[in-house]
């Protein structure tokens, strides 16, 4: 997937936030029948960064579909130029925004596509009547006596 100079794939995705490109939105086709997971691994300053605070926010939606912005990194060249986010998982659509500083800040991670299972089938549909009869009923376990 390649949008506005940023690419996210299963191998090595990434985008760069700068003074001129302060945000990047990762989204998927709403009609896609798959679930998408975007995991953020690393946020780091790159060549040309000034020794200033660079705050990166993730903008998404909460369970009530309200937009929320959460700072995930505060980078400064002299004390913390890189932050590992240990595959911080997000559900698209999600926007990465440079809330303070001029960057450049590089974001990297991975994008996973998980096909959804068809929820309309019944669990026992694949079993024949004979196979259903062969399944043993569940019986409660018996207490064992302790031998003295």
Automatic annotation (TrEMBL):
Keyword Cytoplasm: no
Region called Disordered, residue ranges: 118-148
Taxonomic path: Eukaryota, Metazoa, Chordata, Craniata, Vertebrata
One MF term in the entry's GO annotations: histone binding
Listed name of the protein: Nucleoplasmin-3
Function field: Plays a role in the regulation of diverse cellular processes such as ribosome biogenesis, chromatin remodeling or protein chaperoning. Modulates the histone chaperone function and the RNA-binding activity of nucleolar phosphoprotein B23/NPM. Efficiently mediates chromatin remodeling when included in a pentamer containing NPM3 and NPM.
Pfam families (alphabetical): Nucleoplasmin
One GO biological process term: chromatin remodeling
Localization in the cell: Nucleus, Nucleolus
Quaternary structure note: Interacts with NPM (via N-terminus). Forms a pentamer with NPM at a ratio 4:1 (NPM3/NPM). Two pentamers form a decamer.
Gene that encodes the chain: Npm3
Native source species: Rhynochetos jubatus
Keyword terms, alphabetized: Acetylation, Chaperone, Methylation, Nucleus, Phosphoprotein
Compositional bias (Acidic residues): 120-133
Superkingdom of the source species: Eukaryota
Chain ranges of the Nucleoplasmin core domain: 14-112
């Amino acid at each position: 997937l390649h949008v506005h100079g940023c690419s996210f794939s299963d191998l090595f995705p990434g985008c760069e936030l700068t003074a001129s490109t302060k945000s990047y939105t990762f989204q998927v086709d709403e009609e896609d029948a798959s679930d998408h997971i975007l995991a953020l691994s690393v946020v780091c300053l790159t060549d040309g960064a000034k020794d200033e605070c660079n705050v990166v926010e993730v903008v998404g939606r909460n369970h009530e579909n309200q937009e929320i912005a959460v700072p995930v990194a505060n980078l400064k060249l002299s004390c913390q130029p890189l932050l590992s986010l240990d595959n911080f998982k997000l559900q698209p659509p999600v926007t990465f925004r440079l809330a303070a500083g001029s960057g450049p800040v590089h974001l990297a991670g991975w994008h996973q596509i998980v096909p959804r299972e068809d929820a309309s089938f019944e669990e026992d549909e694949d079993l024949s009547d004979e196979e259903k009869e062969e399944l043993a009923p569940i019986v409660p376990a018996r207490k064992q006596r302790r031998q003295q």
